[in-house]
Amino acid sequence: MNQNSPKIPPQSHEAEQSVLGSILIDQESIARVADIVSPEDYYHEAHRQIYQAMVNLFEHRSPIDLVTVSEELEKTKHFESVGGATYLTNLVNSVPSASNVEHYAAIVGQKATLRRLIQASTKIGELGFDEELDIAKVLDNAEQSLFAVSQRSLKQNFVAIKDILAESFERIDELHKNKGVLRGVPTGFRDLDALLSGLQRSDLVIIAARPSMGKTAIVTNRSEERR
């Protein structure tokens, strides 16, 4: 390989095509990949615009097929630039079925994360060469850049409402039967428990104080009591 040739950023043209083709074959596929990949994750501009059109239709609960996607692209003035009806038809023919759409989407997302990591490392390298910057600021900016990449790679799955209704009703019934009982983990401070009804699941709780004031002891004590 020629070491002087420009390096192509991580990307998978085939995986991007397969995601789009799967959605055109089975419009329900977009619900399976919406939490895995976003329009910005596509390397190729045409694919980015096509997927954005699909997302727009999905958000408006409109059908997703060759006709509706074409119309949506016409509205945004991208129909011709993405290759028109010919390319959209080729996308349908690029994948045999939509059964592996989540796998294809994962590949697209992973490649996008690698590209963002390269961008972050380039930025960190530039910060390192700027000797006039305060070292604390350099470290903070470097951490923020990497944190942004890791956060973008975290996806939250959709949960069907039917899957959580039963659990929610059980929780409501339990609270109704145990009125006055703390709903969460007690803090050990009566006034605080009366205000919060204990620490609730999914809460982000930050214990802040000066050094050697007992922060670790409080957290350890609460954890031991919940075992």
Automatic annotation (TrEMBL):
GO terms for molecular function: 5'-3' DNA helicase activity; ATP binding; DNA binding; hydrolase activity. One of its GO terms (cellular component) is primosome complex. Residues 178-215 form the SF4 helicase domain. It is an enzyme of class 5 (isomerase). Pfam families: DnaB (PF00772), DnaB_C (PF03796). GO terms for biological process: DNA replication, synthesis of primer. Its EC number is 5.6.2.3. The keyword Protein biosynthesis does not apply. It catalyses: ATP + H2O = ADP + phosphate + H(+). Keywords: ATP-binding, DNA replication, DNA-binding, Helicase, Hydrolase, Isomerase, Nucleotide-binding, Primosome. The keyword Disulfide bond does not apply. Belongs to the helicase family. DnaB subfamily. PANTHER family: REPLICATIVE DNA HELICASE, REPLICATIVE DNA HELICASE DNAB. This is DNA 5'-3' helicase.
